[in-house]
Amino acid sequence: MIIRILPTQVPQLWEAIKFTLVQADEINKEDMPYYFNKLLHGLLNEKAQCFIRLSDDRRLLMLLITRIIIDQITGNKDLFIQGIYSWAVVNKENWQDDYNFVKEFAKSEQCKRISCESRNKRIWQLCEKLGFRENLRSFIFDLEV
After folding, report:
1. From CA 130, how far away is CA 17, in angstroms rounded?
2. What span, in angstroms and rounded, lies between the C-alpha atoms of 128 and 99?
3. Distance between CA 95 and CA 131 in Å, rounded?
4. What is the largest CA-CA distance in the chain?
5. Is the Cβ–Cβ distance between 51 and 66 less than 8 Å?
6. Bridge partners, residue 50, by sequence
7. CA dist 114 to 9, 27, 76, 131, Å?
């Protein structure tokens, strides 16, 4: 079962939240202060949402960060999965249950789509298994300054 974390509970999970997003987003060390400051602000003012799954003995099994964003082309609301991490092997049925929960949350927020971005091939595979389709590819060229 997934539980939504309240803003007042974020400090208790802050280290796990940071770990999750470092793993999911592969954040460069020099970018971490800005990234985490922006994330903390979003979580505390409910612009971002944190969900967890606990084991029967209350150990953290999975952590998910989402944001509700407005699509710049359509003006529709999208639920953006910012990061997800699992501390335990999860079977297909549990992932499907978790995804169904996320879908219901997105619908309750009047979102038209669920989207995510990741550099992690495991996340790509999971998204494909859950019925996501590739939307775009992003490329980057670093300038020497």
Report:
1. 23
2. 12
3. 12
4. 52
5. yes
6. 5, 65
7. 25, 22, 11, 11
Tokens of 10: 């974020």
Q: Where are the domains of the chain?
A: 2-129
44 Cα distance to chain centroid: 16
Which two tokens mark 21?
A: 């997003």
Bridge partners of 115? Answer: 80
Structure tokens at 25: 């987003």
Enter the pTM of the model: 0.84
Query: Would the pLDDT of 14 be above 80?
Result: yes
Does domain 2-129 fall into CATH 3.90.1150.10? Answer: no
What are 94-127's pLDDT values in tens digits?
Answer: 878 888 899 999 999 999 999 888 777 777 788 8
> Is the Cα torsion angle 106, 137, 26, 39 positive or negative in sign?
negative
pLDDT tens, 30-47? Answer: 999 999 999 999 999 999
Query: What is the arrangement of strands in the sheet containing 2-5, beginning at the earlier edge strand?
Result: 2-5, 48-54, 60-70, 77-86, 113-116
